[in-house]
Amino acid sequence: MDHDETGCQAAPEGPILCVNNCGFFGSVATMNMCSKCYKDSILKEEQAKLAATSFENIVNGGSSSGNDKEPVLVGTVDVQVKPVEPKAIVTPESSASGSGESVVVKPKQGPSRCTSCKKRVGLTGFSCRCGNLFCATHRYSDKHECPFDYRTAGQDAIAKANPLIKAEKLDKI
Fold this sequence. Notes:
The chain is an alpha+beta fold. It has helices at residues 3-6, 35-59, 150-161, and strands at residues 16-17, 25-26, 89-92, 102-105, 126-127, 133-134. The strands form 3 sheets. The chain has a two-stranded antiparallel sheet. It has a two-stranded antiparallel ribbon with strand order 3-4. It starts with a helix and ends in a 12-residue tail after the last helix.
């Protein structure tokens, strides 16, 4: 049977490599690109269309309903972006506090480490009541010489949960 009789097309002899030479295989459905390169190209096209329409809105005065205006031809614009350095941001507190203090927002710090042994803990670090971060070995209070007073904290919690109730000595009539 020929491919003309069945309506099917003959498949190419071997697999097709991506046209971007990324090393993966492409397909005819994705314009001979691999799935990642195809998604990237679609994303670039959408961004270019969005940039063109926003540029056109700026040039035309911001109105999208201007039927009497002529269309503007938009070419590619090369924009060079400088890297931004992280800086500490100082913002004043609201005027309701009344003091002249300011809040300092720190930039993102490096990886989290155990306070005792400086081992990287990442997401598996254990926070202690003393306010420090520890690894699995030093997470218990007796392993890192914790200054937190667990006894007083426990007594305070019990006192809050069980208030003292005294009955009146004489019944009111």
